[in-house]
Amino acid sequence: MFSHIVPTTYLKSWKIPNSSNSIYLFKKNEIADKGKKRNLLNLSGTSFGKKNFYYLKIETCDSKIYDPLFLPIISYLENDYIVRYKDKSITKNNPGLFRIVYLNKKSDLQLIRKKDGIEINIESINSTINSLWNDTQKRFIENFFSNVLENNWNCFLEKTQNIHTDFVIDEDLKRYIILFITLQFFRDGLQIDEYLSSIISSFKPIDYQKNNIQNNILIDILYEFILDFNEHNATSSNIIYNTFLNLISSNWCFNFNINRQGTFLTSDTPVFVDYYNGQESIIFPLTPSICLALTNSKKDNAKVKELTQSEIQIINNLIIKNSKEYVVYNNSYISY
């Protein structure tokens, strides 16, 4: 399955008029050329996602944080088998021990069938174990993105469609915006690599564009983030969750920049930090008609401004500059 680093629900605002799921992609360095028409549901070979990028594979979940995901497996086995390792029973009360043994000492794992006392080779039920590692475990991260972020995107957009000068950023709206921004910062692993490179001199960043590489460190950190987020933890050692806490505890001016011509672009880096109007800003095009820019403020507030043509061009140039490879528009040629 193709995992979208930039969510499909987000990109749909840039659909070609009267099309179902088509957009135009422009290479960053060939922006004046005619765009390539692509289906939103099939963006393979682009920086908008990678095949199975966020999937949790049972063989790589060899960390204590993943113990709860092994509970359904040991619970199922316990119905029909006595599970042992070196004469020590393994029960659903200790899914972590099952994880350690299954992933590292599988040949030493004993399964004794309860109905007749016959010992069963673990390899003979691998298919059963793999089927138990189902979408709940495999798609744990993907399901969070879908249920918490993407399913609520259209509701968020509806609130901004008739935006006015008295628009209020309440606590729930701020939390949603900050969550989306935080996760988009870290969703492809580049930020984590940059952070690790800054504290570990021997760390070698990954070439994400080569061979559909997935950063296992990223997957661990995303999984830990979800645990912290769901528990509403006040502190954490997780870089993504700490970023979320820092952003949510700061005060922001939410600048809604309006483009009546509907010519804002977006890209494979839809959220980025750059300077706009002399201020460091988090820039986030929401639709072709609205671009959100967050700047530090003494208190949370919202401003709405209709932009001039030159201001629109400045933002679009920043969007192009900060893209990795591709820019998105809803017409075959970019004109802004």
Question: Keywords for this structure?
Answer:
336 residues, alpha+beta, four-stranded antiparallel beta sheet, 15 strands
The low-confidence parts are none
Give the structural class: alpha+beta
Strand order of the largest sheet: 11-12-13-9-14
State the share of residues found in helices, binned by percent: 25-40%
Contiguous helical run count: 12
N-to-C SSE string, H for helix and E for strand: EHEEEHEEHEEHHHHHHHHEEEEEEHE
Strand segment tally: 15
In short:
This protein is of the alpha+beta class and 336 residues long.
Characterise the protein shown here:
The structure is a single chain. By secondary structure, the chain is α+β, with helices and mostly antiparallel strands. 37% of the residues lie in helices and 21% in strands. It has helices at residues 8-11, 67-80, 95-104, 126-132, 135-138, 140-149, 153-161, 171-186, 190-199, 216-231, 239-249, 309-322; strands spanning 2-4, 22-27, 36-39, 49-51, 81-85, 88-89, 109-113, 119-120, 252-258, 266-267, 272-276, 279-287, 290-296, 301-306, 326-329. A five-stranded mixed sheet has the order 11-12-13-9-14, with helices on one face. Strand 2 (22-27) and strand 3 (36-39) form a beta hairpin. Helix 2 (67-80) crosses helix 3 (95-104) and helix 8 (171-186) runs antiparallel to helix 11 (239-249). The protein starts with a strand and ends in a 7-residue tail after the last strand.
